[in-house]
């Protein structure tokens, strides 16, 4: 340890997404290659001497205690824990949550010393992993509200790779197996006999960590919600969700010096007749076992919705991933104006 293959893989993965800005301290980490990266892990991050770094990933993360602050993180998976290396700016982003973080070193702000804080989730404390729709994100749950983190990978490949690596590492943990239920069959394992309703698909790992995947009903619930937002313009049976993707809405800030743009996280949903942007709560659902009350906001909140028939043109940027798309809609105040004109003209 480490093998040449592992060092090559970790070096390739150590790249910050180009559209997201990070602090100088994280830029330093992203500049490390191969053996230097592994040595940095052992001298600055690892908690025990004999743990091995197995996987590295850059991802936006959300914490259960600060659900409105999305922060860039270098996620490091070892044989003992998952480490989230964060911007120091995150500590000051949400002042009323200051008790969540230890602020001893906040006097370093004005010096040339760049501080990163590291959130540690030990594998022994891990209870469940919820994978989001179409593998766009996943939520890691520990034993308390302080130990719930969502990784917004916005990429099914990164999600899949991390889950595979996590399962492999969990297999090394020595835990006593849980007792097998009596007369275990398909219906008792995956369904509730009282309601006849299928639960989310659960895979219980040998380490007793649950891996929970969304079932088809979640898409059905989402389709029903989307139909509600359409004010009954479309009948539900014919409504199909063609695309669900976590994206960013670009807001140009023209008053600033360089005309910079801010990126607002949105969930984009495309149906056969409409294009929707939702503000989605990625961290509160499904409710953790210790939650005493439902979250303050719904899982999906409609931010914008336009009919495909009003779409005039789509402009595509020529840069590599992530691709920028601009949707230009006809700015008609009364949405049904064209429809009514047609009826008046051709009807009786």
Largest sheet: 9 strands, mixed
* Rg over CA atoms: 23 Å
Instruction: Give the amount of beta strand, in percent.
Output: 25-35%
Number of strands: 15
Could you say which structural class the secondary elements and strand pairing correspond to? alpha+beta
How many helices? The count is 8
Helix content: 10-25%
First-last Cα distance: 82 Å
**Lateral strand order in the biggest sheet:** 4-3-2-1-7-6-5-9-8
Anisotropy-based shape:
globular
Nearest-integer average pLDDT = 81
Unreliable stretches, pLDDT < 50, 5 or more residues? Answer: 192-198, 337-342
Give the H and E element order: HHHEEEHEEEEHHEEHEEEEEEH
What is the secondary structure topology, with strand pairs?
Layout: H1 4-13, H2 24-30, H3 34-45, E1 53-63, E2 66-78, E3 81-87, H4 89-93, E4 116-122, E5 128-131, E6 138-141, E7 148-152, H5 156-170, H6 186-190, E8 201-204, E9 210-213, H7 216-229, E10 241-252, E11 261-271, E12 274-280, E13 300-307, E14 311-316, E15 325-329, H8 337-346
Parallel strand pairs: 5-9
Antiparallel strand pairs: 1-2, 1-7, 2-3, 3-4, 5-6, 6-7, 8-9, 10-11, 11-12, 12-13, 14-15
């Amino acid at each position: 340890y480490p093998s040449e293959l592992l060092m090559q893989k970790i070096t390739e993965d150590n790249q910050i997404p180009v559209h997201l800005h990070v602090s100088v301290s994280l830029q330093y980490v992203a500049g490390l290659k191969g053996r230097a990266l592994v040595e940095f892990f052992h001298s600055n991050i690892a908690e025990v001497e004999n743990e091995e770094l197995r996987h590295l990933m850059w991802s936006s993360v959300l914490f259960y205690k600060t659900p409105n602050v999305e922060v860039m993180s270098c996620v490091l998976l070892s044989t003992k824990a998952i480490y989230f290396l964060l911007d120091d700016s995150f500590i000051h982003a949400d002042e009323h949550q200051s008790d969540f973080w230890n602020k001893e070193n906040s006097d370093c702000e004005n010096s040339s010393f760049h501080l990163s804080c590291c959130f540690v989730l030990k594998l022994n404390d891990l209870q469940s992993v919820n994978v989001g729709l179409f593998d766009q994100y996943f939520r890691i749950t520990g034993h308390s509200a302080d130990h719930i983190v969502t990784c917004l990978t916005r990429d099914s490949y990164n999600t899949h790779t991390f889950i595979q690596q996590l399962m492999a590492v969990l297999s090394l943990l020595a835990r006593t197996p849980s007792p097998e239920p009596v007369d275990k069959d398909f219906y008792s394992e995956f369904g509730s006999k009282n309601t006849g309703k299928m639960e989310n698909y659960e895979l219980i790992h040998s380490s007793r960590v649950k891996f929970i995947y969304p079932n088809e009903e979640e898409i059905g619930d989402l389709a029903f919600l989307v139909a509600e937002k359409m004010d009954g313009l479309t009948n539900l049976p014919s409504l199909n969700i063609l695309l669900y993707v976590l994206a960013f809405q670009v807001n140009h800030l023209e008053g600033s010096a360089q005309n910079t743009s801010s990126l607002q996280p949105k969930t984009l949903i495309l149906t056969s007749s409409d294009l929707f942007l939702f503000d989605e709560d990625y961290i509160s659902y499904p409710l953790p076992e210790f939650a005493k009350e439902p979250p303050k906001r719904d899982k999906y909140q409609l931010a914008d919705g336009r009919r495909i028939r009003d779409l005039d043109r789509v402009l595509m940027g020529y840069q590599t991933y992530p691709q920028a798309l601009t949707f230009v809609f006809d700015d008609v105040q009364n949405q049904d104006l064209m429809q009514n004109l047609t009826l008046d003209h051709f009807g009786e």
